[in-house]
Amino acid sequence: MSLKIDPKARGLIFDIDGTLVDTMPIHFRAWQKVAEEYGFEYPETLFYQLAGMPTAAIIRYINKHQVKKLNPEELVKAKNDAYLSLINNIRLIGPVFKIVEEYHGKLPMALGTGEYRKIALVNIRVTGLERYFDKLVTADDVTNSKPDPETFLKCAQLINVSPENCQVFEDGGAGLEAARRAGMIVTDVRPFVNNEATA
pLDDT tier at 63 (50, 70, 90 boundaries)? Predict the structure, then answer.
């Protein structure tokens, strides 16, 4: 079983973290470091449940559900710093990257992530993805992040393809919901990747 392009697809949109790049274990390690330092709980089940949400939104969720008064701006910087100290370990996810290689130059493609631009650009550079993508929508570019469809709708505008003809590749619940709400062709990559990464 391998990933397939839908016959109706005229443009391809990829999430980054956990879909195209195997960053999730590193994000989790960074979160654990920050959680210990600032005194809150962020178990692995919750980490994957909130996958795709920007860091500031996650901090607001923790403040609400754990009755904390964490400063989102301060925590975004702390978490980003922790993540950047670990980036040498990230790898591309083979089955999804094969789609990128195969359709590069054949169909317009964009990246749509809930990550901040600074971190997304590092991930793209470290893994060599900049040669395949010049269209990127990040948490800094939208008013409403996933599961709102704004991220993917902006991607569709950038590649000049109508939403119903865009195929989205995603691993997070919020991102999959965003793609559905955008009226796009939705592909959940989780059954295909199985944490398989390639250097």
Answer: very high
Question: Is residue 15 annotated as a catalytic residue, yes or no?
Answer: yes
pLDDT computed for residue 197 by the predictor:
47
- Domains by residue range for the chain, with CATH: 11-22+90-193 (3.40.50.1000), 24-87 (1.10.150.240)
State the catalytic residue, choosing from 6, 15, 17, 140: 15
> pTM for the full model?
0.85
Which pLDDT band, with edges at 50, 70 and 90, does 160 fall under?
very high
Q: Would you list the DSSP string of the chain?
A: ------TT-SEEEE--BTTTB--HHHHHHHHHHHHHHHT----HHHHHHTTTS-HHHHHHHHHHHHT----HHHHHHHHHHHHHTTGGG--B-HHHHHHHHHHTTTS-EEEE-SS-HHHHHHHHHHHTGGGT---EE-GGG-SS-TTSTHHHHHHHHHHT--GGGEEEEE-SHHHHHHHHHTT-EEEE-HHHHTT--B-
